[in-house]
Amino acid sequence: MTTLTAGGTLLGANQPADRFYAGGERIAAFRGDGAARPHTPEDWVGSVTPLFGEASLGRTVLPDGTALADAVAADPVAWLGEEHVAAFGADTCLLVKLLDAGQRLPVHAHPDVPFAAEHLGLAHGKTEAWIFLEPADVHLGFTREVGEDELARWVSAQDTAAMLGAMHRLSVEAGDAVLVPAGTAHAIGEGAFLVELQEPTDLSILMEWDGFAIDGAVAGHLGLGFDRALRAVDRRALSREQVESLRTARARDGGSLLAAAAPFFRAERVRGDSVLEAGFSVLVCTAGAATLTFESGDSLDVRRGATALLPHAAGVWSVTAGPGFEAIRCRPPSPADAV
């Protein structure tokens, strides 16, 4: 813990095996650490969250063999800061992933905080956001009001054409950031490669599973049954303007991204030489290389594909950037903006 609180630490890949959709090649190429295993499309970065139904799979293990969740619980102030702990306790309030969609993901949605609290006894739902590293197409939200019985029929019949036909299709460019409020139906398109920020849960309600390596009729409803689980889906019509408002187009400049996500998490793009305030952070280096220097005088070198975990106790830190350096800094919500 002493070394970690003095600065930051580089994290290796944390890719749960045998996921139900394809991918992983882009993560391996991005990280530069060899050939990808099949069906490892997610890299859980700085995670204190296990996969749904698992005790520890998905949680980050630090280089000394300590689970990050245990390290944070043992010294939450050093990791998260006094203000964060006063507002949230030892909850990091954040999960970050690299996601490589080797095939289109199924249509699904995530519950919001009230639904998760009432039906699952959890403090978090799963609002999420995507920051794209490569162009892609996504489906996001319904173009018209969808009836409760209609949605149930689509799911029962696995009528993918009807689901996708009732959803907005959005083409995104590298650098675009998209907020996905909990409850919103969505499906990330094949070929997407992105950094995902989300509330720290693994809660997904599958509306589609036909053709995927999962029995959605059993595993797609969080153990609640579809009669209850589908109540978490936002069936309202979204206008094209409302869907476009969820995107920060080509958000390549330095500074804050995803302002509307502030009650759930924060993201900022770091470019060039910078001085950054203290705070628990997951840093994903997306281009170039840089040296991070912390208040202790310790330093950490990062390059494209590196992910780093930075505790609050590292203090204010500076970036000495090489040519073309860019990174995404992912953070919990500010206590002032908390839900």
From TrEMBL:
The keyword Isomerase applies. InterPro entries: Carb_Metab_Reg_Kinase/Isom (IPR051804), RmlC-like_jellyroll (IPR014710), RmlC_Cupin_sf (IPR011051). SUPFAM superfamilies: RmlC-like cupins (SSF51182). GO terms for molecular function: isomerase activity; metal ion binding. Keywords: Isomerase, Metal-binding, Zinc. It comes from the Bacteria. CDD domains: cupin_PMI_type_I_N_bac. This is Class I mannose-6-phosphate isomerase. It comes from Demequina lignilytica.
